[in-house]
Sequence to fold (1000 residues):
Amino acid sequence: MLFQGSILSLILFIPTITAVILLFYPSDQRTAIRWTALAGSLISLALAVYMWFNFQPGSPDHYQFLESRDWYNVIGSSYILGVDGISLTMVLLTTLLTPLALLASFSIQERVKAYMILFLLLETGMLGVFMAIDLLLFFVFWEVGLVPMYFLIAQWGGQNRNYAALKFILYTMAGSLGLLLAVQLIGVTVGSFDLREITARWPRFDQTHTTLMGLPMSTVKSIAFWAFVVAFAIKVPVWPFHTWLPDAHTEAPTAGSMILAGVLLKLGAYGFLRLVLPLYPYQAAQYGMALAVLATLAILFGAWGAFGQDDFKRLVAYSSINHMGFVVLGIAAAALAAKSENAMLALNGAVLQMFNHGLYSAGMFFLVGVIYDRAHTRNLNDFGGIYALLPIYGSVLIFTSMASLGLPGLNGFISEFLVVRGAWPVVTVATAISMIGLFFTGAYTLKALKKVLHGPLNKRWAGHLTEMNTRELVVIAPLMVLILVIGLWPAWILDVINKAVLLWF
Amino acid sequence: MQQAQFPLLSMIIFLPAIAGLVILALPANRREWIRWTALGTALFTLLLSILLYIAYDAESGGYQWVEGPIPWIPGLGASYFVGVDGISTPLVLLGALVVAFGIMVSWNVEDRPREFFSFIMFLGTSVLGVFSSLDLFMLFFFFELAVFPKFLMIAMWGYPKTREYGAMKLTLYLFLGSVISLVGVLAMYFAAGKNTFNMLELEQAGFPLAFQQAWFPVVFLGFAILGGIFPFHSWAPDGHVAAPTAVSMLLAGVEMKVGAFAALRVAIMMMPEGARAWAWLILILATINVVYGALIALVQTDFKYVIGFSSVSHMGLVLIGFATLSTEGLLGAGMQMFSHGVMTALFFAVVGMVYDRAHTRDIAQLGGLFRKMPVAAIGFIVAGLVSMGMPGFSGFMAEFPIFMGAWQVAPVVAIIAVLGVIVTAGYILLVVRRVFFGEIPPALDKTVGDVSTMDKIVVISLSAIMIALGWFPQALMAGMIHSGVQRIVALLGGA
Fold:
């Protein structure tokens, strides 16, 4: 195989290398800077696709494409990268959305160089989380992505950007403190940060150690469990930890919102799958019901919150809380019914929902950006009858909204159905209520469509709005194709996810 | 322990002082001669310490580049005896680095440049001497050598409004500290009864348990005052703020490490039983350092005081690392001493660059400076990220092992100290936003320009060091420090 043993490092650091190269470009060479950034992210995408086709879904090894190098061995941490079916899917999503987001950012005129550099560093940060098989390395990447995102929001965001950026970073950092402490505790107790070793030993520590630091082992593990859960729940975000999200998503520049919703939220869900379930199977089963309740509330309140918005972007932001709720519901069901048929279905649904939401939420934020660039307003009440003016934009918007609404034949339906099918026998009431939430999903989606596209034409737009240009169509087209393909024939991706899930849980 | 074939360490220690004397002999109006002599020597010393750093063999560990012991005052048992181990080699590099960069950011000093540059060179010899000493008398000699130039530099070139106060306060506190530790050191000298100040022999003296328990706090505290330990920290912010930029860099970046290093080298390593008995007290005081320093920094309105108090907070982490007496904690403390030294030197350098151009340090009157001095602003942001313990930067790689050490002895310390991290994130982000972003006040818009090329070299080099350490902690430094830590842990009796 090509790039034997270092393909993950290449995918991970090519964006960083591109960013370093960009440092030496003169700031006024905007076109060159944009195309170089795009090219760098496309190389990562090409390698990720190549990796996808060389991945062996049925292989008994938990992780493939493993790389292991010395890093910080004196404290028990090494540079270990690897992917399984779950993280591979997320790597593909990240490497796909980044070039699209960069292309969407070609309209940025201010400080293009700094913008592109930050964006590429952000990609490395996100990819590292999905690839790290060392707990310390995981934490490093988990936090380091915050920095470029903070500056993207604070420097290129909307009117309330400073407030939103500070809230975003402080909220996430504060949430990560518990995770940091728990990571240290695990490292000190197990004596290594290698996830394979921790996964093998930490869940069984109750049997060998009855107390840790004077507390009963079960108490220590419950506290550590919640430390993990809070950090990841903030990122997902699960109600009531979601309040940073509407501000950050609304104030971020368009491409920033695409990545925030498309990838950053997945980091939280991925944390649940990679760390919480394998490391705390008993605690997860014990507290799974609480998680299911929070997920249901997120689905309901997310939908209601979205319905109440007059700002198009804020509406889409709240919809993320609603959709990510299904991911958490699937995870909660799997935690409660570990190793059952239902758990497998729910987890398949959850992982696929992560991928799917990445596609259509990025698409939705992009489309909001497209209309905002033209109208300079996002107030739903200012629009109306736009379909007649912009038929292509209108069709694309309807298509993407339908995926988000869960229309059969498009991708959202498949994953939400899987989650619901898996969760129903386990947490029947919560699932039933969540399905009522689906009704509200329909309501807010249609409300947005109606207010923007239909109804009487607001006269001020006549002759002032231009149709989507080629660049914008190139951004949205790959997303639409994937939305349709997964909706009609999900087997190619579900096969990879399912085999990984079977191996793990 | 092998004798050095070539007196590399002696050259590193004494070159700055020789240059200091040469500069004093130059005519006062020859500014070019003066500053180029200073910079040339400092850069050459830096080059030699980089060589020393690269040549240090972490695999075999122990003291290397040893010279002596050569009898110096035979009646006392004092000798000239130098050598470096895994802990002190990075500190020698740090000292040489900050001296050279301190000179670069002071390039345009107009008031009595001859004395200014000469005194900086003496300060350099003083800190480099402490880090390399293997003889206790010599260590003290170098330790005290710094007092005179420090006092004069703050009082003569400092911030006019507070320089007399800052200089007096700093000097009196540090005098108090050294008197206390001197008493302790003399007690050790007599108790050992070997008529020697040779530190390697004193380590093996095996002081009685009761003696160690009684004298450890005296020696440790005396030195730790210079390390900024609570409640004797208040000289630090006042002194740092009153001092001219280069001296602030040296004080916070290197002098505070001199205090911490001496506390480790003399108190902990020579009286391990005493350290074990008193570790709980150091843990408490140092934890207060971390949280209290961060909280006070949060409410400062003076740009320079923010950084002054942040040093108090960060040195607390070093002391926590010491007090854990564990491999991880000591390793982290060693990393933190270097990382904090580089970070705070960069902080004070940028604060100086801003003040020189804006002529105010009132945060409320600053703003939007990113556009005027982007490189300096990015440097400040990088230092800020190091300061808030952001992964990917050196601060995290230093703090993480310290917390691991704390978990082993007192989990509650780890939990409380980590709260200091979020407060740090708060004050750093606030000050970055207020000073470098937002609207630029009209008065500053006209007057403020970009920093000089030499300033940019300083900012970029220091930033690069911190990022490199954040990604390659062990390859670049932790391996070396670990070899030094193993020796300390052995003295502490295994564990």
